Amino acid sequence: MTSFLVAMSVWWSGDWLAFQEARELAKVQGAHIQRAALLQTNSMAKETGQPIALEKNLAELGQSLHADAVLFWSAQGELTSRWGVSQGSPNLATPRAINSGIWIGKESGSRCLEVRIPLQGRMTSLGEIRIRKILPKPAWFNSLGRATTLAACIAFVVSWIWLRRSFRAIRSVFHSLERVGREDFCHRAAVEGSAEMKCLAKATNQTLDSLMDSSVRVQKVYVETALALARTVEAKDRYTSGHSHRVAKYCVEMAEWMNFDTERLETLRLGALLHDIGKVAVPDAVLCKQGALDDEEFDLMRKHPNAGDRILSAIPGLRDISDIARSHHERWDGKGYPLGVSGDSIPLEGRICCIADAFDALTTERSYKPAFSIEKALGIIEKDAGTHFDPELARLFVSLKRNQMAERPQIPEAQKSDPVS
Questions:
Q1: Which end of the chain is less congested by CB atoms within 10 angstroms, N or C?
Q2: Among candidate residues 297, 275, 417, the one with its CA nearest the CA of residue 368
Q3: If DSSP codes are grouped into helix, strand and coil, which group holds residue 80?
Q4: Residue 279, in any domain of the structure
Q5: At what angle do helices 168-180 and 195-235 cross, to 10 degrees?
Q6: Cα atoms in the Cβ-side hemisphere of radius 13 Å centred on 23
Q7: Mean pLDDT lowest for which of 89-103, 183-197, 314-328, 365-379?
Q8: DSSP state of 280
């Protein structure tokens, strides 16, 4: 639309300038034709009633003045005779008087000068002679079309650049709102472009800030509720008291060695704390049973990873944590549960939690076994690397624990047997 308006403005401006030039030219030529014609039309008054003589006089007048057409209008306003190479309309289109007896208008699309000279008899008016001459266009007028096209192209490019610059915040706002649909409130729209777009981006960012604050508060409530459930599960069995916190500690130690960023580290810590939350769906008789579980009871226990996945996946923003709860009993060789996936198909955080969970189970007393020594537990993890556990992670964990044992100060035997009171 802008390009069209600019093009029309250029065209109308050029046409107006051409009219002004034609008007000035018409004044000069019109005055010259008036003076020359007045000398010749005095003798024509006697012959207006003789058609043959009148047409001859019109032809001589037109030729002598180099006119394009000469017309004779009777006193009654009728065209009675004409001469000339121009056979256009008897009347000019859009005629304008620019001086006494000098008019300018259009004939066949071209600007035309018309000089009107009255023929006066002895007693009354005999009619009027109209001498027409096509005015030449200015030399630059032929380039007006190209100039109009060029102006339209420039206007289009400038408008496109301006619009792109003014509305570039729209894409950023769109991306921010698109992420809201995925429960991601962290992305902010760039405050740029026109004043209106800046206001829109600021308003969007303020709304996202409010949504993020609300989401964080709601998520915190959900997480605290989930942690309370997890503590409730542990409280049912004295053997598993503190289990989740120890598993979280081992997971964080491994993740720090693997250079996890802060956000991913926190996700792993929460996932480890909540990895057994699905046990709320396991009957207390199975969960607190003294001794080994039978096959039917073990089938019920095997359902807790899926139950934990369902509980945590219902909490906004905890999808990654629910993956840890679901996958911490999967095995590297694919013989784990609940999905039986293997290798790298198991989420990395789930593989880390699997090792930490197994290590804590081995080194703490359970109803069905005594607590193993750290070295014995590490030996079992080494033996099961590549079958039960991710071999690379198992080697890292064993190395990490043995380094911690080597750095721990040795307590003399005398102090062990005779503690300070």
A1: C
A2: 297
A3: strand
A4: yes
A5: 20
A6: 11
A7: 183-197
A8: G
Name residue 341's amino acid: V
- Checking if the pLDDT of 246 tops 80, the result is yes
Domain annotation covers residue 415: no
> What one-letter code names the amino acid at 108?
S
Mean pLDDT, the chain, integer: 81
Residue of 3, 303, 1, 374 lying closest to 153 (CA atoms) = 3
Task: Give pLDDT tens digits for 200-223.
Answer: 778 888 887 887 777 777 777 777
Whether pTM exceeds 0.90: no
Task: Quote the pLDDT of residue 421.
Answer: 29
- Full domain range(s) for residue 198: 164-211
- First and final C-alpha spacing in the chain: 93
Which of 231, 190, 178, 186 shows the shortest CA–CA distance to 211? 186
How far lies 321's CA from each of 102, 272, 358, in Å?
Answer: 93, 8, 19
Residues 177 and 294 in one domain: no
Higher pLDDT, 258 or 194: 258
Task: Decide the pairing of beta strands 79-84 and 69-74.
Answer: antiparallel
